[in-house]
Automatic annotation (TrEMBL):
This is Phosphate regulon sensor protein PhoR. It comes from Paramixta manurensis. Residues 195-410 form the Histidine kinase domain. Its EC number is 2.7.13.3. The keyword Membrane applies. GO terms for cellular component: plasma membrane.
Length: 422
């Protein structure tokens, strides 16, 4: 179009070739100038607004502008998608690692850094086999059989379950779940059944032996009396064990209990005082220091189990001549119950495990006194339902103290209706 005027003028006045040459050079110069403007906009200016154009350059500038808008929108959506993915991965309760099929890391979340010792972004591009030097883990990745998870023990105590899934072409998604608590619960379950079996097998063996003896020969006199007494003792032992197991399972399985029941702890302690003195039979000096007006809200059955176990333990497991002091008094933290004795005490290494099921400091002495190792476990769970915990302090050869405190909100205040709690 730009050459038509030059052609018309050239035909009219002459010099046609020169006019056409000048016209073509002008057109080329104009296009070159627009190319320079386009290049400056794309590589130097980089603003969203394109330069103004005329003729054929106007739709080109506008088309590039629209393409740039679409690309920016797509990049923004992709960036938002990646941020959402990473935010979701950070919220997961598992360690998440993204790697290539060769094992090169290109992203991991915070739990992966915490559990596996990875560093981000410092470990970007590092091979995970160079950072996690476990032979089982290396074999698991190299075999590429991910139908089953792999469980590893890392940092000497933490159990992690690894699952590997293809994430996209040439990439893997690794998920490591902390299953330490699950392993501990499984171990506790195995120990529990082993202990129950052992505790029941012992008296059953004794009973079976005496029954076989009585079947083979007629027992009379002192031998018969001893056999009957032993069988009765073993029967009572089994009955006590089954009763404590039922109590523990009932307390553990109980949902959130109703703490609106008024428990007359002073009256409960008066009954326990008579029982403790009968059980002691003068072997101990027992003193009760009780606030007669200190009643609380709670579950009477569970509080009775907790308090009676602590009192009976003090009588059963301290030697003759021990002074035992039981107190139920109010303090700044609430209602405090304490059983204190000046017996031989408990070594420090045993204190953290005393509330475990079937745990005994002295197994022979506990069995001799009829202890099952379940009493303090019952205490622990009963107190947890009252938002309290058992504190145990012991100085060998000086003093041992078992204490728990019920919060002020559980104290029944004189003058208020018994179904009203502050």
């Amino acid at each position: 179009m730009a050459c038509l005027p030059a052609l018309a003028i050239g035909l009219a006045v002459g010099y046609l070739p020169w006019l056409l040459l000048i016209s073509v050079l002008g057109v080329l110069g104009w296009h070159f100038w627009n190319l320079l403007r386009l290049s400056h906009w794309l590589w130097v200016d980089r603003t969203m607004t394109p330069p103004g154009g005329r003729g054929s350059w106007e739709p080109l500038f506008y088309g590039l502008y629209q393409m740039q808008l679409r690309n920016r929108r797509r990049r923004s959506e992709l960036r938002s998608l990646i941020m959402r993915f990473r935010s979701g991965a950070e919220s997961l309760p598992d360690a998440v690692i993204l790697t290539t099929e060769e094992g090169n890391i290109f992203w991991c979340n915070g739990l992966a850094q915490q559990h596996l010792g990875l560093r981000w972004p410092e470990d970007n591009g590092q091979n995970i086999l160079n950072l996690m030097r476990y032979p089982e883990f290396s074999r698991y990745l190299r075999q590429r059989d991910f139908a089953r998870p792999l469980t590893l023990v890392v940092n000497h105590h933490r159990h992690l379950e690894f699952r590997v899934m293809p994430y996209s072409e040439g990439q893997w998604l690794m998920v490591a779940r902390d299953v330490t608590q699950m392993h501990q619960l499984e171990g506790a379950r195995r120990n529990f059944f082993a202990n129950v079996s052992h505790e029941l097998r012992t008296p059953l063996t004794v009973l079976q032996g005496y029954l076989e003896m009585m079947n083979d020969a007629v027992l009379e006199g002192r031998a018969r009396a001893k056999a009957l007494q032993t069988m009765q003792e073993q029967t009572r032992r089994m009955d006590s064990l089954v009763g404590q197991l039922l109590t523990l399972s009932r307390i553990e399985a109980a949902p959130a209990i109703d703490l609106s029941e008024t428990v007359d702890v002073p009256a409960m302690l008066r009954v326990l005082q008579r029982e403790a003195e009968t059980l002691s039979n003068g072997r101990h000096t027992i003193h009760f220091n009780t606030d007669p007006h200190l009643r609380v809200f709670g579950n009477e059955e569970q509080l009775r189990s907790a308090i009676s176990n602590l009192v009976y333990n003090a009588v059963n497991h301290t030697p003759e001549g021990t002074d035992i002091e039981i107190s139920w008094l109010r303090n700044a933290q609430g209602a405090r119950f304490c059983v204190k004795d000046n017996g031989p005490g408990i070594a420090a290494e045993h204190l953290p495990r005393l509330t475990e099921r079937f745990y005994r400091v002295d197994k022979a002495r506990s069995r001799a006194t009829g202890g099952s190792g379940l009493g303090l476990a019952i205490v622990k769970h009963a107190l947890s339902h009252h938002n309290a915990r058992l504190d145990i302090v012991s100085v060998p050869q000086q003093e041992t103290c078992f204490t728990f405190t019920l919060g002020p909100r559980l104290i029944v205040h004189p003058g208020l209706p018994e179904n009203t709690r502050r």
